[in-house]
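Hi R.,

Here's the chain you asked about this morning:
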Amino acid sequence: MKYKDQNTWKGQWRFITFENLKDIPPTLFEFLRALPKSMDPRTVEQAILHRYGLHATVHARNNVITFAGREAVNKALAGQITSIDEIKINYEELGTGTTPPAAGDTGLETPGASTRQPISSVAASGNKLNINSFWAAGNATGTWKEYACFINGTATSNSGVIFVHVGIDITVGSADSLVIDGTITQIN
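And the predicted structure, written out as tokens:
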């Protein structure tokens, strides 16, 4: 096995819209994490309806881990950072750019600054990194073509080091909440 084959990261994401959802059910993120990422989106919708009585629309996507994000991880592993904040995934943003995500990306193509917010939850478990988010109704209204999460970002649009870039095609209505359930797996 070649060295480069030992450092493969794969990301799978679910973008889920809920109509008229005021608050996120306390166990929703854990419930979603327990469902296989390979599960058909319609089956996930049915599982959410059965468990929580909520109607949902699920979109499944894969991501690109950027070179900039990998470089930030390498710097942390080499001890070339001065604080944990320099490597912490802390912000996310939606955008309208239509160019497919690429490893060389340094930010969203067309960020939707009004959607910039802190990540709701990041947790490591074995070789998996789970990233979850919640936008309340009215906070993510629009048609979105891209999503990203950032290392060491601020509230300023596109700030920080882009770690994950995902091409999406979702519309979030003004009465819709948006839940994002992502898992990045180190394989090989």
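The first strand starts at residue 8 and ends at 19.

Let me know if you need anything else.
M.
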